[in-house]
Write a structure and sequence with these properties.
- Pfam families: Ku (PF02735).
- Belongs to the prokaryotic Ku family.
- The chain has about 300 residues and is an alpha+beta fold.
- It contains 8 helices and 9 strands.
Amino acid sequence: MAVAARAQWKGYVRLGEVTVPVALYTATSTSERISFHTVNRETGNRVRRQFVDSVTGKTVEKEDQVKGFEIDKDRYVVLAPEEVASAVPESDKTLRVQAFITCDDIDKVYFDRPYYLTPDRLGMDAYTLLRDGMRKANVAGIAQTVLFRRMRTVLLRPHGNGLIATTLNFDYEVRSAEEAFKDIPEIKIEGEMLDLAKHIIGMKRGTFSADEFDDRYEAALAELIKAKLEGKTLPKRAPPKVSTPNELLEALRQSAGVPAAPEPKRRAGKTGASRTKTARSTAGKAKTKAGAKRASSPQRRAS
């Protein structure tokens, strides 16, 4: 995707007494995504959003809208636009490099948004020196400046022929991992299950290439829109089956291409023919015994 024609921000990168004029361009864009408008189901007309007073129900025009911080139920500290603007820190448009670190020093959960940082024509030499110096030392730069009306911390990294500037989240903006994972129980996996998991991971080892991955949701939306235009409906997909603890080992074996474990041998039973033969033999013996018993009875002997 081509870099946007208009810079998001223009300023300087400052390292000691070296000043590099730069421009910031967004590295990601949502313009290619399928977007929707809200429309009236009955009329098909687009719906227009309005702000209304929660008590009177009357429309509030833009010039009458102010910021309010809730201090109690239905009680607000009201701030006018000029008052909010006064809190924005003064900006000298300078990204001051405060330290150089290895990228592994930062947990990627703090990464916010990436931007392309490009040089001004007059600062090409200084820009190249900064880029190549960081690449040779295998480090990234930490800098701060005011971006988009907020003080932001930025990570500067060599990328291809230029630099990537990634804004970082502040500590208070990142949830605690311990809090998020606190309900996960301690389960020890070992033996064949762990060996199979390691084997499957080894089979799936590879490298990342962004063009190999498709946005299936966008593709599904495009198919849905096409089907609607043609008067068709898409079939509903069944949810994937979740492997239960009892099925996990067999699922791992199937994933790894390992043959299923043989069922335990059972004691060989008698065939139908042998069972019939045995039954006849038993019946014959019983009949013989019954005959002998009648022959030896007193009535038989007396006669």
